[in-house]
């Protein structure tokens, strides 16, 4: 079969597997994105609230039903789903009605939480814009599911394209796509959250880096990196800041290393560093111009349990103390189950086979570390904040396997393609 057929087959297989869990992927924050998307379709505040609450509570009820079926004590008890559904609806409507009665009716999102907290989601229109046509055509449940499948499969296809641009053989490029779908990248991207688009846009930026460093289509590569940063700003502007800074640092590092070794730095790394710096500067200027929530506001949100408690008088002191505690506990858990660390190590070894691109890949993976550092909460829905770091093994492990594959197959006729970096 042709490579594109294998790509579509992997995507179709992944979609079929996701039919096993259509409901129950939501996090509490998913309500904000779904209600935002519904408002973009023309629904008024109460219509958006009703559809969002029904979808969210149906997911909670489905999860309760599945949990009860395998409960060794209560598996023969009555189905808890109707009770959970009713209690969830009552609780959510009570909170929303109180805030609507208090006049909290501004913005695109339904006021599920205090206004200061909802402001964080008001400045993230990217994911709701993608979600809106799906919920308008298919309804909330199937619209959210379909959007999740397409976004996740798009990320897997971008992983394939990056590896092919790096001259990786087709089987290894398909391996990278499969790794993206089966590792936490795919699981997290399927949630109704921003992480799926963040992963896909980061891969788009890495594809642009590969095009620039390979020298084949540098202008298209730079345009792709710039476009990815611009789109990422609409999804989560802090991630644009992280990715732009990391790409700029990677470009400088590659240029300095080449000069240190007595070789020309080349235009590619310098141009990528310039685009990264432009992304950082643009993010800072536009976010201030639009009065986006500041870093201090984000820290207060973390330390006050989403503004449910009074603001901290010394937030930064407490924040850095929490940072130390968090990373000590995080390291302890990783050493207990070192799969993530082993995957990062394998990915780093593979990235060394494309030295220049490997620096940019490691830089993009570091944005996951930075994202987690900005939210040192050990209980945020299963490591979703650090998921971007999994891009290192997704792209690095196939490159690590390249010598094994080349020894195992008969070399194709014709001149081999020079690898990037």
Structural key phrases:
421 residues, mainly alpha, 18 helices
Give an overview in words.
With 421 residues, this protein is mainly alpha-helical. The protein is 72% helix and 0% strand. The chain has 18 helices and no strands. Helix 9 runs antiparallel to helix 10. The longest helix has 40 residues. About 2% of the residues have low confidence.
**Percentage of residues in helical conformation:** over 70%
**Overall strand count:** 0
Query: What do the pLDDT scores average to?
Result: 91
What's the order of the H and E elements? HHHHHHHHHHHHHHHHHH
Strand content: under 5%
Indicate the structural class.
mainly alpha
Q: For the CA atoms, what is the radius of gyration? A: 23 Å
Please, how many helices?
Answer: 18
Poorly predicted ranges (pLDDT <50, ≥5 residues)?
A: 412-418
Shape: globular
Kindly report how far apart the N and C termini lie.
30 Å
Largest sheet: none
